[in-house]
Amino acid sequence: MIFDVLTLFPEMFECVLSHSILKRAVEKGKLKVNLINIRDFSKDKHKRVDDYPYGGGPGMVMMPQPLFDAIEFVKSQGNIPVYYLSPKGKIFTQEMARELSKMKRIALLCGHYEGIDERVYAVIDGEISIGDFILTGGELAAMVVIDAVTRLIDGVLSHPQSALEESFSDYLLEYPQYTRPEVFRGMRVPEVLLSGNHAEIARWRRQKSLEITLLKRPDLLKKANLTEEDKKFLREKGYEI
Ligand code: 4GY
Question: What is the pTM of this model?
Fold first, then answer.
């Protein structure tokens, strides 16, 4: 998958792309990130990319000319949708990550200062928000999207979840995990996980997922794929279905 990132700070991406799973995805040719410096498209003699807001007020606004030219540069290379990272966008979810992971190539536009000139929306295909808070720029949000999408690309993870397992665990929080030692500071690993009884382990994990979701994020249960056995378990815990 190819991401074209339009940014004033391309160096910010280097650290994220040169570590761990994203690094390996780049090396394996599963991920390519083209970093495009918006400033390179400025036609201003001082290479300016921002200007004062009409009507007054604090801060600066990203000028339309460099943004239009940078976006047109990307779009001249194919039918590539451009998504703007902004708190006004549709909230980014695992479902959205899954949809994006099926695409060949997308562009991510990172804003700064007070945002972009409103006329730039004419050449933007969508707006994505990673949550209801305000960052200093769109770069960290773009990295979040790249990270969440890349781990869903075929061949990136060494132990991927199957599509069936994934849909089964959608909207449920993860069950608790343990590794060695069996006893740490007096705290034991649950006996069932040492039993070797795979059916029992699967049931315990499912119930823990349901229990933790009910406790911490009951709102998620409405969207989860629940079996009759799941519903019975939740009703016993006091959840109304
Ligand atoms: N939240 N989700 C976000 C953000 C920074 C001013 C517009 C977010 O995606 N992006 O907070 N972005 C702002 C900074 C210009 C983008």
Answer: 0.97
